[in-house]
Design goal:
alpha/beta; D-Maltodextrin-Binding Protein, domain 2; five-stranded mixed β-sheet; four-stranded mixed β-sheet; 18 helices; globular
């Protein structure tokens, strides 16, 4: 009996030792957006199921992009999982910098990922990042202020209507700005917004020979329209406002309209966080009648840098965080309106989610975004709010800085566009495009 008990104890010790040896601590870089912050609160569920623990590095959007790009391009090895998007994923996958996600479990059901998201996170048909959430952009507006102004928001408004409504809803005495839009420098911050907006004005970054197009009437019309409207109806300091700053303003009741990521809908309608939760409506991003709306297409996704020593554990985390089960976990704890949207087809087939007021507009916005045909005139690049070439991030960061300086009154729109034209052409020539 003693020998039997000793053998059992020894076997148990071996099993526990093996489990301890297999447990990993994963370092994950992520953006400080609400859904990602929420995910961190559920990490105990992942640890309970797998034994792995997680250390989070949570960064502002521009800083995140800089940190992960530097780390992966220099093989720094600081992170086991990175939060990246549709711009980086195909480029880094082609470079061999990411672990392919072509062996995810059958239970995970990779085929359920919305085609627009899977396509944007793949290279040559191989998935290199799994979407935590997907988004387009749309108008979020105060239904009470719109009614007070005597206006009715169309489902598919024009920019002229948006400008008129912004002016009508602005009430400086009560700190209500008719419209809040990104002006913050950064290719994925204000740069993303103005690029998507420019598509609807007939502008493009490059012609078919990779010549910069900032010296065109279309770009002048875009920037002048934006600046005139924001100067008249936007918040003070809008040149430094990005997603999080505008979200805070809207939740405090200081914005009549906000055009931004569809993922924000759950935050502006959450009564725990938003003072205007019961008076928010939604509409498609505006156009100018040229056939292109100003909505983008994006996913914040999780990817594994090639060379990590913790690939198996990292894949376990990605499967957990981007699974149907995670969506159900959040729904059970916080309600269907707060689950990560835009990533899985099955979510939009769920009756409980179909009842969420912004679900249909989010899906319509995502499905109407075409990264292969984003401009009125032909362009040589794929992408809506970015051009999917390695040089774009650096160029567009500089361009966005010039634009933000114009918004802030530090230079004219004409000066900003002239500088954008020169620096873009110089960079493209140095890179061998011209």
């Amino acid at each position: 009996m003693y020998i039997k008990n000793a053998l059992c104890a020894t076997t148990a010790l071996v099993v526990l030792t093996a489990a301890a040896a297999q447990a990993e601590t994963l370092t994950i870089a992520t953006v400080n957006n609400g859904d990602m912050i929420r995910m961190q609160g559920y990490t105990d569920d992942f640890t309970a199921k797998t034994g792995h623990t997680v250390e989070w590095v949570t960064l502002e959007e521009n800083v995140l992009r800089q940190r992960v790009t530097t780390d992966i391009s220099t093989k720094g090895g600081a992170f086991d999982i990175m939060t990246i998007g549709m711009y980086e994923t195909p480029i880094w996958g082609a470079n061999g910098w990411l672990v392919p996600l072509d062996d995810l479990s059958e239970e995970y059901d990779a085929a359920d990922i919305l085609p627009a998201m899977a396509g944007g996170l793949s290279h040559d048909g191989t998935l290199y990042a799994a979407p935590f959430y997907g988004e387009s952009s749309m108008i979020m507006y105060r239904t009470d202020l719109m009614a007070k102004a005597g206006l009715e928001m169309p489902d598919a408004p024009t920019w002229d209507f948006v400008r008129e409504a912004a002016a009508a809803m602005t009430d400086r005495d009560n700190e209500i700005n008719g419209i809040c839009l990104r002006g913050k420098a950064g290719w994925g911050e204000g740069g993303a917004f103005i690029t998507a907006m420019s598509n609807s004005f007939g502008a493009r970054w490059f012609d078919m020979d990779w010549n910069a197009q900032f010296d065109t009437e279309q770009w002048a019309n875009t920037l002048n329209f934006y600046k005139d409207m924001m100067d008249a109806s936007g918040p003070p300091g809008y040149a430094t406002n990005g997603f999080n700053e505008n979200l805070s303003l809207f939740q405090q009741g200081k914005c009549g309209m906000w055009i931004d990521a569809t993922v924000a809908a759950s935050f502006v309608t959450n009564p725990n966080d938003s003072t205007v939760a019961d008076s928010v409506g939604f509409a498609l991003a505006p156009d100018t009648g040229l056939g292109k709306r100003s909505n983008w297409l994006w996913a914040w996704a999780l990817a594994i840098p090639a060379g990590t020593q913790k690939e198996a554990a990292a894949k376990e985390f990605i499967e957990w965080a981007t699974s149907k089960s995670y969506i159900e976990l959040v729904a059970a704890k916080e309600g269907w309106a707060n689950v990560p949207p835009g990533a899985r087809t099955s979510l939009y087939e769920t009756p409980e989610y179909q009842a969420v007021p912004f679900a249909k507009m989010t899906l319509d916005s995502i499905l109407s975004a075409d990264p292969n045909n984003s401009t009125v005139e032909p362009s040589p690049y794929v992408g809506i709010q970015f051009a999917a070439i390695p040089e774009f991030a650096g160029i567009a960061t500089e361009v966005s800085q010039e634009f933000s300086a114009a918004y802030a009154g530090q230079q004219t729109v004409e000066e900003a566009l002239a500088k954008a034209q020169a620096l873009t052409n110089d960079a493209m020539e140095a890179a061998g495009y011209r």
